[in-house]
UniProtKB/TrEMBL annotation:
One of its GO terms (molecular function) is ATP hydrolysis activity. GO terms for biological process: quaternary ammonium group transport. It comes from Devosia crocina. This is Putative spermidine/putrescine transport system ATP-binding protein. Residues 4-235 form the ABC transporter domain. The keyword Flavoprotein does not apply. Keywords: ATP-binding, Nucleotide-binding, Transport. Transmembrane segments: none annotated. One of its GO terms (cellular component) is ATP-binding cassette (ABC) transporter complex. Belongs to the ABC transporter superfamily. SUPFAM superfamilies: MOP-like, P-loop containing nucleoside triphosphate hydrolases.
C-alpha cells in the first residue's frame, strides 16, 4: 500500500511570492493523479516539494503515514522523472539505471537482474550498452522512467516528461506510461499543462490556479461539469459569454435563451460540440471561418458586439464564410461569482 497525503502545504519564495497556497490532496494506493494548470499555477513546485527538491514553507507531506516533509530526496520512497531527462551522458544506459542501486549496496547479480527487467518493461531490452546520446528523445525518456522504476519507489513523480517530444511520440509514450503504471499499480503524481495528457491518463485531475485548487475530479466530470469559469475555459474548448439574466432568460449579443436562475449578471458556457447550427436569412451569427479536420469541422462564428464562438459540425462542407446562421445549444452551463449555478 502506497498512499500520498499532502496537507495544507504552502510555499513562499523570497520577496513574498506565494507559489503554493495551503494545498491539500490525498492520492490513493495505485492511483494516477494529474496536476493540471497553466504556467505559474504552482503544479511543478508542488511536485518538487513531494520529491524533496523544494522545502515547504508550511504544511505536512506523508507517505503511508510517515512524515517526509523535510527529508532529502535520497531518503524518500519516491522516484522522479524530469522533463529534461537528467541522464548522465558519460554513462551508458545500464550504468545510468544501476547507479542508484549501487548506492544502496545492491549485489551485482541483483543489479543486473533488476536493470534488465526494467529495460524490458519500458521496451528497451538490449539497450544497456548504448550511450544516452545515441538514443532518440523518446528512448531517453524511457531510460529516465526506467531509472526511477528500478529503485521500486512507493510514489512515482512525473514532471511534464513528454513536453519536449513531438505530438505523435507524446501520444504513444503517454499510453505506454499509463500501461506501465497500471501494470505496476504504482501510485503516481503527474504534472502537465497539456489537457489531452490529463484527460487520457489520469484517474483524477487537479486543476490548479495561482497555487490553489480550482477543481478535483475524474477527467470526464472535469470536462462535462466544470465548477468554475476558469476550469470551463481551461479544459477543452468552451464558448464563454458574459451577459444578463432577466425573468429567467439570458440575453447578450443577439442570444436569448431560457436560464432558470435569479436575475443578474451571468457567464454562459457552451461546448462547440453541443452547439447546433442552421442556415437562416437573418440569423444570430455570421460564419467567419470553417476548418475541416477530416473527422469533423470547426466553424468560427461572429456574433454582434464583436463576440466570436465556435461550433463543431459533422459536415463542414455545408458551411462557408459569410453565411448567416442560427444557434441552438443542446447543453449549457452558467456561472456567477466564480461558481457554477446552473447546468443542463
Amino acid at each position: 500500500m502506497s498512499v500520498l497525503k499532502i496537507s495544507s502545504v504552502s510555499k513562499y519564495f523570497p520577496g513574498g511570492t506565494k507559489a503554493v497556497d495551503s494545498f491539500s490532496l490525498d492520492v490513493a494506493d495505485g492511483e494516477l493523479v494529474c496536476l493540471l494548470g497553466p504556467s505559474g499555477s504552482g503544479k511543478s513546485t508542488l511536485l518538487r516539494m513531494v520529491g524533496g527538491f523544494e522545502d515547504p514553507s508550511s504544511g505536512l507531506i506523508t507517505i503511508d503515514g510517515e512524515d517526509i516533509t523535510h527529508l532529502p530526496p535520497e531518503r524518500r520512497p519516491t522516484g522522479m522523472v524530469f522533463q529534461s531527462h537528467a541522464l548522465w551522458t558519460h554513462m551508458n544506459v545500464f550504468d545510468n539505471l544501476a547507479f542508484g542501486l549501487k548506492l544502496r549496496r545492491t549485489g551485482k547479480s541483483e543489479i543486473r537482474e533488476k536493470v534488465e527487467a526494467v529495460l524490458d518493461l519500458v521496451g528497451l531490452a538490449g539497450y544497456g550498452e548504448r550511450k544516452t546520446h545515441q538514443l532518440s528523445g523518446g528512448q531517453q525518456q524511457r531510460v529516465a522512467l526506467a531509472r526511477s522504476l528500478v529503485l521500486e519507489p512507493k510514489i512515482l513523480l512525473l514532471d511534464e516528461p513528454f513536453a519536449s517530444l513531438d505530438q505523435h511520440l507524446r501520444e504513444r509514450l503517454r499510453e505506454e506510461v499509463r500501461d506501465i503504471q497500471q501494470r505496476l499499480k504504482i501510485t503516481t503524481l503527474f504534472v502537465t499543462h497539456g489537457q489531452d495528457e490529463a484527460l487520457s491518463m489520469a484517474d483524477r485531475i487537479v486543476v490548479m490556479r495561482d497555487g490553489r485548487t480550482e477543481q478535483i475530479d475524474r477527467p470526464d466530470v472535469v470536462y462535462r461539469n466544470p465548477q468554475t469559469p476558469f476550469v470551463a475555459g481551461f479544459i477543452g474548448t468552451m464558448n464563454l459569454i458574459d451577459g444578463e439574466v432577466a425573468h429567467g432568460r439570458f440575453h447578450r449579443a443577439g442570444l436569448s435563451l431560457d436560464l432558470p436562475i435569479s436575475d443578474g449578471p451571468a457567464i454562459l458556457a457552451m461546448r462547440p460540440e453541443a452547439l447546433d447550427l442552421s442556415l437562416a436569412d437573418q440569423g444570430q451569427a455570421v460564419v467567419h471561418r470553417v476548418t475541416d479536420y477530416g473527422t469533423h469541422g470547426l466553424v468560427d462564428l461572429d456574433l454582434p458586439e464583436a463576440i466570436r464562438v465556435k461550433a463543431m459540425v459533422d459536415h463542414p462542407d455545408r458551411f462557408s464564410t459569410g453565411q448567416s446562421v442560427n444557434l441552438a445549444p443542446r447543453a449549457v452551463a452558467a456561472f456567477r461569482d466564480g461558481r457554477q449555478v446552473f447546468r443542463s
